[in-house]
Write the structure tokens for this entry.
Amino acid sequence: MENTIKALERKGYKVTVFSNGGEAVQYLRNALNGLTIGFGGSQTLTELDLRHILAENNTVYVPDFPAEGETFSGSALKAFNANVFLLSANAISDDGDIINIDGTGNRLAGSLFGHDKVIYIVGRNKFGGTLEEAIRRARNIAGPKNALRLRCKTPCAMAVVKDLEMKFREEYHTDGPIDQLEWQSFLAKLDSDNLNTHCYDCKSPNRICGSLLIHMKKPYGMDAEVVIIDEDLGF
């Protein structure tokens, strides 16, 4: 991790490291006040409950959880025009390449241009490997988990969703409707063996891995920070 931190710093990113999510949340709470903040879709941000915590002192736009009367697209446009944009990463290589996959593109677009600051909030499980291995993680772990989160009718999700729902019900002792946030937390804990699926490079109209972005360095003119948390978080 130390070498990866140095690589990210050489690429122009500010890097801050925290031993747990609580410390990182407190840091962000203190650093972000009186701003408009846009969110890219992220299980990590959901697990840290940042959409509620940062809303105490800021105006937040979270497309995955649009405000009453808002749509995903309307909230995503407001997020794109916010002062600060928050997201995570699907993977970060040993050399500090940041990889994200997106279906709509709002998360990728928000990380490229248009904000006073972009902050990546990334758990330790997203780090490691060559660029090729990081891309493989993004496609074969993060992609299927997000398809399952969104209940997409894609091969990667449909191949395992029934088995995973059965395991979920056993773990949470429920026969009723599946709570979405509990489902997401359940998916986040699965390693590749328990997930037992992969990217099929499908042609499904529900495919969510339409675009892949590799940040080989910080974009010009952008203030960008990588907040690293020494815990497993997100997909």
